[in-house]
UniProtKB/TrEMBL annotation, chain A:
Keyword Iron-sulfur: yes
Organism of origin: Arctia plantaginis
Record-level GO cellular component terms: mitochondrial matrix
Protein name stated in the entry: Glutaredoxin-related protein 5, mitochondrial
UniProt key word Metal-binding: yes
InterPro entries to which the protein is assigned, alphabetical: Glutaredoxin, GRX_PICOT-like, Monothiol_GRX-rel, Thioredoxin-like_sf
SUPFAM superfamilies the record matches: Thioredoxin-like
Alphabetic keyword roster: 2Fe-2S, Iron, Iron-sulfur, Metal-binding, Redox-active center
GO MF term list: 2 iron, 2 sulfur cluster binding; metal ion binding
Automatic annotation (TrEMBL), chain B:
InterPro entries, sorted: BolA, BolA-like_sf, BolA/IbaG_stress_morph_reg
Family per similarity comment: Belongs to the BolA/IbaG family.
Matching Gene3D superfamilies: BolA-like
Pfam name, any one: BolA
Position of the signal peptide: none
PANTHER family: BOLA TRANSCRIPTION REGULATOR (PTHR46229), BOLA-LIKE PROTEIN 1 (PTHR46229:SF2)
UniProt protein name: BolA-like protein DDB_G0274169
Tree of life domain: Eukaryota
Organism: Arctia plantaginis
GO annotations of cellular component type: iron-sulfur cluster assembly complex; mitochondrion
Length: 146, 124
């Protein structure tokens, strides 16, 4: 009886357990994210797309990128549950959006906002060869004053 | 006027939550004990989102601590995320962080802006 129980119930229990675990944690492989974040100098993982962000925090990052006229890749985590979990695991960061510059995790919305306000973002972009539109505008107005 | 209104709303929320916010209280006590915060605001911003009334899903924390001294912004955020790891895994969906050293806090205007408006991504 005991054996029968074990054979009939436990295997399915184990399978269910495995199934749950795979749903919870599987994410996308690290290698795939490695490729994604190296595909462009700036890569943003967000909710929705730049033309229609579906979260205020993601929208804030999009607006910052727009102000600096940064070309970037974006990935919508709402359309891919595995990516949503995978990116959190990859960068060990619990929330979306996530911004990568030169393949390195830089931060989420709060950090981007602060880097934008402090001028640090202009410097970080410069390091990877992107000239911020804000910098261009500042230079132009300086020229005009001369 | 709008600042007064805003702080009025967040005070209202804070008062409401102090009556019922289990998660809010946990966040508060964890940050106080681990970071020995000199100043701490835990603001439940869930009401701004598409979640049931009284939900504790979206928070903003303002933490002022000596322990942030010498740490980069990202390390400060990681520290706070780590302390609140359990909450983030069990229901807290958004956590906005302002992490300053006492010196930075004194030099700042001490006005914390409210988080951006919801765009409806949660609850999808």
């Amino acid at each position: 009886m005991n054996n029968l129980l074990r054979r009939t119930i436990f295997p399915s229990y184990n399978n269910t357990l495995k199934l749950c675990r795979s749903f919870a944690n599987v994410g996308v492989p690290k290698e795939k994210i490695d490729t994604l974040i190296k595909n462009n100098k700036v890569v943003v993982f967000m909710k929705g797309v730049p033309d229609a962000p579906r979260c205020g925090f993601s929208n804030a990052v999009v607006q910052i990128m727009r102000m600096h006229a940064v070309p970037y890749d974006s990935h919508d985590v709402l359309s891919d549950e595995n990516l949503r979990q995978g990116i959190k695991d990859y960068s060990n960061w619990p929330t979306i959006p996530q911004v990568f510059i030169n393949g390195e995790f830089v931060g989420g919305c709060d950090i981007m906002l602060q880097m934008h306000q402090s001028g640090e973002l202009i410097e970080e972009l410069k390091k990877v060869g992107i000239k911020s539109a804000l910098l261009t505008a500042a230079e132009q107005s300086k020229e005009e004053k001369k | 006027m709008s600042i007064a209104l805003r702080s009025g709303i967040s005070n209202f929320c804070r008062n409401m939550c102090s009556m019922s916010g289990v998660v809010e209280n946990t966040i508060r006590s964890k940050l106080v004990s681990t970071l020995e915060a000199k100043h701490l605001d835990v603001i439940n911003e869930s009401y701004m989102h598409n979640v049931p009334k009284g939900a504790e899903t979206h928070f903003k924390v303002v933490v002022v601590s000596d322990k942030f001294d010498g740490l980069t912004l990202i390390k400060r955020h990681r520290l706070v995320n780590d302390i609140l790891k359990e909450e983030l895994q069990t229901g807290v969906h958004a956590l906005s962080i302002v992490a300053k050293t006492p010196k930075q806090w004194e030099e700042s205007d001490k006005i914390v802006e409210s988080s951006p408006n919801c765009k409806g991504g949660f609850g999808k």
